[in-house]
């Protein structure tokens, strides 16, 4: 079968991809920009770090509540309705946050924003997976990821030149454009492909707070006290107990569970989702450590730190679409280990970096690690959707996002604790960063070994149906 029949990305699919990424990138930018701006917000509202950190933590917990629900909502109401509703709530929360008058209102509006942001990425993944089909999943996931590496650069620009309100206001005009385009481009009748399932209330009461408790524990574990703090231990225990309760409920439930754990009976699906758990750890750790190294060790500002992270985005710019295209032919088994090896090689350079290290060498290391992240991410995501039928894409997206977020949060907490503890022990910030970066290298080695367990060359698929836009006939139809 020729590429034009089987894997060609028709204009309607590319338009859908562009519109969905335009909205989803706002949620990623939100976390990037706000995390960097926590110190400025604390000074603006005269609030201690213990209070103002809830601007980030509250948003994170709201996202954790919504991610498990998103799969059911997509199947029940359709992806277009969920997408536009989530984007509208996200934009409304962002606008209100910019008008916050004290720390309490700021945190409340951030939680509201998180309720909208929590459905954006799972919905994007579901809609793109269904529209692209298994034959084109790699290419679409590769292209989808390109703009998501721009977050630190844009965040640095906003923080350098604009008032704190623009941390939130800048998303509104972009989001309005995304909503208007979504009304035209995102399919309106697409639902789960079957009869709507009853709402799994018991599953919501177990899985959502369980996921949120784990995310809270990891968000609090990054200091010098690490995982031994009472609130961290309580959060971890509560999260594990609630999630185990959900597992028992899901296998015994008479109605469709919130996230169908039977998907994990497929070895290919389990291996692919586990790989994304590890990929989340590598990606978020580097996004946390690299700008922090430039700010704390070299004394750069937010804008310079964001720009110095750009080479990593440049590497991903090359790696993601290339690996996405190759994964549609080769699968993930070869590409993921190769990408993980590049991440390890690039990160090793930072394990030796000091206050006066050559920026050209460090930029080259970032390009290599970014190329590796691109070669890991797109094939791993694509392999998730190749192992499930289209009707299960929403549940697969929820499971993928839950494990990816847990992997990222857990690893960031771990490297932050390593950074703090080793810095104190050696009385050297540079030494602390060296140890933290070595942990990222270790994670890359694990991904390298695990990658050989992923599905290999994908089976040949029938030509996918053309994408149908909202209110438009199928392209090419009479």
Task: Label this structure with key terms.
disordered C terminus, 21 helices, single chain, mainly alpha, globular, 478 residues, disordered N terminus
The main sheet comes to:
none
Uncertain stretches:
1-6, 472-478
Distance between the first and last residues' Cα:
24 Å
Nearest-integer average pLDDT = 80
What is the 3D shape?
Answer: globular
Number of helices: 21
Specify the oligomeric state: single chain
Give helix and strand order, one letter per element, not per position.
Answer: HHHHHHHHHHHHHHHHHHHHH
Quick one: how many beta strands?
0
Give the class from helix and strand content and strand pairing.
mainly alpha
The percent of residues in helical segments reads over 70%
- Estimate the strand proportion: under 5%
Give an account of the 3D structure.
This protein has 478 residues and is mostly helical. Helices cover 74% and strands 0% of the residues. The protein contains 21 helices and no strands. It has helices at 3-6, 11-36, 38-44, 49-52, 54-77, 79-98, 103-117, 120-132, 137-144, 151-161, 166-169, 171-185, 201-220, 230-252, 267-296, 302-308, 310-330, 332-350, 359-386, 393-426, 429-451. Helix 5 runs parallel beside helix 7, helix 9 (137-144) packs antiparallel against helix 19 and helix 15 (267-296) packs across helix 16 (302-308). It is globular. The two termini are 24 Å apart.
């Amino acid at each position: 079968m020729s590429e034009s029949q089987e894997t060609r990305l028709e204009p309607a699919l590319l338009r859908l991809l562009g519109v969905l990424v335009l909205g989803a990138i706002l949620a990623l930018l939100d976390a990037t920009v706000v995390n960097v701006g926590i110190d400025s917000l604390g000074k603006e509202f005269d609030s201690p770090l213990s209070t103002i950190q809830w601007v980030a933590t509250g948003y994170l917990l709201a996202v954790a509540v919504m991610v498990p629900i998103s799969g059911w909502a997509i199947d029940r109401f359709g992806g277009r309705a969920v997408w536009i509703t989530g984007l509208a709530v996200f934009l409304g929360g962002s606008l209100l946050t910019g008008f916050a008058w004290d720390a309490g209102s700021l945190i409340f509006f951030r939680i509201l924003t998180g309720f909208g942001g929590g459905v954006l990425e799972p919905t994007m993944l579901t809609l793109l997976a269904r529209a692209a089909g298994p034959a084109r999943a790699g290419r679409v996931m590769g292209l989808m990821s390109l703009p998501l590496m721009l977050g630190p650069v844009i965040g640095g620009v906003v923080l350098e030149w604009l008032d704190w309100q623009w941390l939130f206001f800048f998303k509104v005009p972009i989001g309005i454009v995304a909503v208007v385009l979504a009304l035209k481009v995102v399919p309106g009748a697409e639902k789960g492909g079957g009869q709507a399932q009853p709402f799994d209330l018991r599953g919501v009461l177990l899985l959502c707070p369980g996921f949120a408790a784990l995310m809270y524990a990891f968000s609090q574990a990054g200091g010098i006290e690490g995982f031994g703090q009472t609130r961290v231990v309580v959060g971890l225990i509560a999260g594990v107990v609630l999630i185990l309760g959900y597992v028992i409920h899901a296998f015994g439930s008479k109605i469709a569970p919130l996230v169908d754990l039977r998907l994990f009976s497929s070895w290919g699906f389990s291996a692919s989702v586990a790989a994304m758990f590890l990929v989340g750890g590598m990606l978020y750790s580097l996004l946390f450590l690299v700008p922090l190294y430039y700010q704390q060790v070299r004394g750069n500002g937010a804008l310079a730190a964001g720009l110095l992270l750009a080479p990593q985005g440049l590497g991903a710019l090359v790696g993601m679409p290339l690996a996405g295209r190759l994964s549609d032919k080769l699968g993930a088994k070869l590409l993921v280990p190769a990408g993980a090896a590049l991440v390890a090689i690039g990160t090793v350079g930072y394990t030796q970096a000091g206050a006066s290290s050559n920026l050209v060498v460090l930029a080259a290391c970032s390009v290599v690690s970014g190329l590796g992240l691109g070669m890991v991410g797109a094939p791993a995501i694509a392999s998730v959707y190749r192992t499930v039928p289209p009707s299960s894409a929403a549940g697969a997206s929820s499971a993928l996002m839950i494990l990816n977020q847990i992997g990222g949060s857990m690893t960031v907490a771990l490297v932050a604790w390593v950074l703090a503890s080793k810095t104190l022990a050696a009385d050297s910030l540079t030494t602390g960063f060296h140890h933290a970066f070595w942990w990222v290298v270790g994670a890359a080695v694990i991904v390298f070994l695990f990658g050989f367990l992923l599905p290999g060359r994908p089976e040949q698929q029938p030509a996918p149906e053309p994408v149908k836009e909202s209110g438009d006939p199928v392209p090419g139809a009479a």
